Automatic annotation (TrEMBL):
Name recorded for this polypeptide: Dynein light chain
InterPro entries assigned: DLC_sf (IPR037177), Dynein_light_chain_typ-1/2 (IPR001372)
The gene coding this protein: DNAL4
GO cellular component assignments: axoneme; dynein complex; microtubule
Stated family: Belongs to the dynein light chain family.
CDD domains xrefs: DLC-like_DNAL4
A Pfam short name: Dynein_light
Length: 105
C-alpha cells in the first residue's frame, strides 16, 4: 500500500505542476500570456533538452518582439540581470524548472 500511495502522490504533484508559476514579471498582460504559453510549449516539446527549448523561445521572441531577447532555462541557479523595463518574465514550470526571459539592448 505504501508504494502505491507514493506513486499517487508523485502523479498528483506532476499534475499540479503542469501550469507555469510566475515568480516575477513586469511585461504587459498580453505579452506575458503569449510568452508564458511559448515557454510551456518549448519546455514540453524539448523536455529533455533545455538548450533547444531556450533557443526556440529566443528565436520566437526575437521575431515577434524585436531582437536582443535572452533566455535561461534550468534548475538550481541564481542570476542578477539588467533588462529593459516591461520586458522580463521569470517563472517556474514542471516543479523545479526555472525559466527566465528578458530583453536588453
Amino acid at each position: 500500500m505504501g508504494e502505491t500511495e507514493g506513486r499517487k502522490d508523485e502523479a498528483d504533484y506532476k499534475r499540479l505542476q503542469t501550469f507555469p508559476l510566475v515568480r516575477h514579471s513586469d511585461m504587459p498582460e498580453e505579452m506575458r500570456v503569449e510568452t508564458m504559453e511559448l515557454c510551456v510549449t518549448a519546455c514540453e516539446k524539448f523536455s529533455n533538452n533545455n538548450e533547444s527549448a531556450a533557443k526556440m523561445i529566443k528565436e520566437t521572441m526575437d521575431k515577434k518582439f524585436g531582437s536582443s531577447w535572452h533566455v535561461v532555462i534550468g534548475e538550481g541557479f541564481g542570476f542578477e540581470i539588467t533588462h529593459e523595463v516591461k520586458n522580463l518574465l521569470y517563472l517556474y514550470f514542471g516543479g523545479t524548472l526555472a525559466v527566465c526571459v528578458w530583453k536588453c539592448s
